[in-house]
């Protein structure tokens, strides 16, 4: 039989062989997975785990969808309540909204520090996700974006072995998130809708597959709707510049030397064909989970009637809440009052009784004492 050293050597070879087999028979689901620990200055440089990777789109394995995860190293238990996926709006990718470090932390950092397992996705055509071919036709309609979002949710549910999770979107992302939640109410724990799209009374000129957005005039349009005496204080010093440099870091440059972002036209076609004609993209009555609708007072991009329209159409939900943050624009997540937004979202996600209390739920004796 084998001498002891031979036996050890053979065992090592067998173990290695089975490891290779295991790896080759079950390839890692994520592509280009990179994990690192990053300090969060606002929390005494405590570290969060940041994982950057791509997943494959369900309809086409050549389309890679960019995702990021942030969590505290001590977060090891996952439940429908502490897992959340965010999605961007029509023009800028998720990392320059949800994970932009301002004042020592991003929104993602803040949630991670409170024990959340927090993710973002860039749907196809946004951020570093695969850019679909320029066919001259509209690309990445809301329904396509919602399918990419669903691919990400299903991936996270497998990764954390949970049955449902929290769903969050901003601006166009509210339509992506709501379309997802109407397609998969059973996978949706709670729905956070920040500055929803709704019926609108104007159309926007558009053609082809991609549209260009330059920095020019961006600061002025950001501040539309803000009282003149508040325009200098609503964005803390230096924050706009950080947003601009990160957002346009990978921008293209045109013949005139002007930086521009090139993004899919699908959202604009949807605005013109659906929302302008008072046609909803999804069926709100399919929503059956708690919903938070939150917006800022001076949002001139998506007005309060849109938020209220969205809210009033939530006729089948067990619980809904409407919150307005004072002194903020469409971008309040990047402004001086962003903590009010973060706190309200967190409060909603942790509220215990999201079912309206029945008369018998009140312990009047306890209240009197
Ligand atoms: C996944 O969760 C189910 C139900 O909670 C549990 O029974 C199962 O053991 C878990 N699987 C893994 C691999 O943790
Ligand atoms: C976007 O800008 C590039 C570079 O100037 C140009 O080639 C392209 O035609 C522009 N696209 C649109 C839709 O204007
Ligand atoms: C919306 O969904 C509800 C519930 O599933 C259904 O009864 C209703 O017919 C749908 N409405 C439309 C316009 O599809
Ligand atoms: C849904 O919203 C539209 C437009 O805001 C409104 O006309 C309609 O009455 C709403 N439906 C319900 C059931 O609230």
Automatic annotation (TrEMBL):
It comes from the Eukaryota. Residues 83-336 form the AB hydrolase-1 domain. Residues 1-22 form the signal peptide. This is Predicted protein. Keywords: Signal. It comes from Naegleria gruberi (Amoeba). The keyword Zinc does not apply.
């Amino acid at each position: 039989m084998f001498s002891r050293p031979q036996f050890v050597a053979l065992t090592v070879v067998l173990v290695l062989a089975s490891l290779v087999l295991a790896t080759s028979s079950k390839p890692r689901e994520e592509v280009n997975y990179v994990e690192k620990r990053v300090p969060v200055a606002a929390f005494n440089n405590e570290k969060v785990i940041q994982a950057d990777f791509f997943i494959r789109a369900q309809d086409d394995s050549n389309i890679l969808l960019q995702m990021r995860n942030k969590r505290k190293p001590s977060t090891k238990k996952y439940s429908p309540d502490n897992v959340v996926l965010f999605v961007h709006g029509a023009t800028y990718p998720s990392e320059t909204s949800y994970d932009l470090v301002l004042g020592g932390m991003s929104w993602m950092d803040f949630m991670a520090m409170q024990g959340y397992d927090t993710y973002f996705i860039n749907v196809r055509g946004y951020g570093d996700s695969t850019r679909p071919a320029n066919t001259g036709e509209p690309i990445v309609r809301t329904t396509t974006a919602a399918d990419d979002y669903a691919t990400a949710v299903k991936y996270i549910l497998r990764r954390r072995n949970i049955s449902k999770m929290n769903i969050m979107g901003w601006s166009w992302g509210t339509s992506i998130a709501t379309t997802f939640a109407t397609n998969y109410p059973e996978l949706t724990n709670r729905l956070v809708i920040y500055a929803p799209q709704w019926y609108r009374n104007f159309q926007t000129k558009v053609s082809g597959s991609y549209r260009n957005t330059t920095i020019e005039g961006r600061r002025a349009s950001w501040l539309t709707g803000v009282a003149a005496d508040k325009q200098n204080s609503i964005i803390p010093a230096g924050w706009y510049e950080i947003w601009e440099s990160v957002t346009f870091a990978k921008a293209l440059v045109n013949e005139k030397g002007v930086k521009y972002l090139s993004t899919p036209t699908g959202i604009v076609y949807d605005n013109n064909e659906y929302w302008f004609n008072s046609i909803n993209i999804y069926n709100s009555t399919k929503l059956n989970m708690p919903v938070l609708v939150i917006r800022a007072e001076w949002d001139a991009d998506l007005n309060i009637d849109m938020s209220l329209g969205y809210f009033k159409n939530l006729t089948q939900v067990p619980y809904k809440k409407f919150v307005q943050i004072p002194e903020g624009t469409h971008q309040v997540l990047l402004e001086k009052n962003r903590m009010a937004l973060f706190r309200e979202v967190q409060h909603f996600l942790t509220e215990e009784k999201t079912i309206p209390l029945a008369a018998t739920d009140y312990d009047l004796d306890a209240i009197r004492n």
